[in-house]
Amino acid sequence: MSVQTSGSIDSFAARLLGWYDRSARALPWRIPPGSDAVPDPYRVWMAEIMLQQTTVAAVAGYFERFVARWPTVADLAAADDADVMAAWAGLGYYARARNLLACARAVARDHGGHFPDSEAGLRALPGVGDYTAAAVAAIAFGRPAVVIDANIERVIARHRLIEIPLPAAKRAIRAELAPLVPRGRPGDFAQALMDLGATICTPRAPACGLCPLMADCAARGRADIERLPVKPAKKAKPQRYGVAHWIERDDAIWLVRRPDKGMLGGMRALPGGAWTDVPPAESGIAQVDHGFTHFDLRLTLVARESEDAAGEGEWWPLSALDAAGLPTLYRKLTDKMRERIS
DNA sequence: CATCCGTGGTT
DNA sequence: TAACCAAGGAT
Predict the structure, then answer these.
(1) Is the domain defined by A12-227 classed in CATH 3.40.50.2000?
(2) Which residue is nearest to nucleotide B9 (CA to C1')?
(3) Is the C-beta of residue A300 closer than 7 Å to nucleic acid chain C?
């Protein structure tokens, strides 16, 4: 079915959805176009939270494990914090995991175990911002919400040749996109734009020859299409340093939990001092370099006696270290130590 | 509006 | 290989 607009070119949405019907990626959380299956808002929400600033490839395994272990929002709401945080370990941006639990419990307690079916209702939940509220409203509930993620920003900025730098460009992008959203398939429309941005209208070397929207793309053929959308320059990342303590006793090591706020908040960790701008004097028994979003960290591992296992913490068997759910920074160190011990 | 918040893949 | 980037949200 093609929808005609002015001229002889099918409407933006018709071309996009036609392409999506042929080319949609098969993803664990996605109902294929044309299926009569009913979306599960819990699974849609779970996927959207995990996909925030995170690639499809990285999310797939986590999504499968989470929905297998906690099949419903009620199951997740009843889970132990430590189990959820450990299951999230390695995926990054750990505030998402804390908000995931807070959101599940809010849905269970305040909404009778059902996700709100409006954009405004969803937006009020922890960890749900403008993008996620619109995405869940459109994909799970068929609401004609205006969904804008980084893929869609890029597609629209190019198609309409919006040269305003982000994030200020978002207002213009929304104004251009809103009238294009079809009442009939808003969820597929949003997912189609994201698939298009991920596979054809890519940041570099876009495959314009394969694009269903090429005919009226304002950036088509421009040598500088990769410049769009215009983004602000990034600041240099400072180098920081830290010391972690390896405290071993009876084939177990001492682990602590980091405070909820700040880096790696709420996650199990090796004990250690605060991170600083100055390299430590000690040489240590191991060392890792780890890049965070806004600084690089060199972490030195220093052996300590079991008497230094003070305050809150737990002796964790070395044989079960995988189950501790350490974030990648510490996982790098424990992997090095495990190689050495075995 | 700017900053903070992870990680791994791609170029 | 260093830089860039990803289905952003909270503050």
Answers:
(1) no
(2) A55
(3) no
| Structure-token match 């071993």, residue found | A248
Q: How far apart are CA A190 and CA A196, in angstroms?
A: 10
Tens place of pLDDT for every residue, chain A, 342 residues? 444 444 446 899 999 999 999 999 999 999 999 999 999 999 999 999 999 999 999 999 999 999 999 999 999 999 999 999 999 999 999 999 999 999 999 999 999 999 999 999 999 999 999 999 999 999 999 999 999 999 999 999 999 999 999 999 999 999 999 999 999 999 999 999 999 999 999 999 999 999 999 999 999 999 999 999 999 988 889 999 999 999 999 999 999 999 999 999 999 999 999 999 999 998 899 999 999 999 999 999 999 998 888 889 999 999 999 999 999 999 999 999 988 776
Report which of A115, A27, A86, A156 is spatially closest to residue A325, judged by C-alpha positions. Answer: A86
Q: What is the β-pairing status of strands A296-304 and A286-291?
A: antiparallel
């996650």: which residue's tokens?
A: A267
A257, β-bridge pairs? A268
Closest amino acid to nucleotide B8 (CA–C1'): A58
Closest by Cα among A125, A99, A70 to A117: A125
Would A12-227 and A239-341 be classified into the same CATH topology?
no
Asked if strand B contacts A157 at the CB level, meaning under 7 A, the answer is no
Q: In terms of C-beta density within 10 A (0-12 exposed, 13-18 middle, 19 or more buried), how is residue A255 classed? A: buried
User: Is A64 considered catalytic here?
Assistant: no
HSE on the CB side for A166, CA within 13 Å? 19
Highest CATH level, class, for A239-341: alpha beta
Q: Where are the domains of chain A?
A: 12-227, 239-341
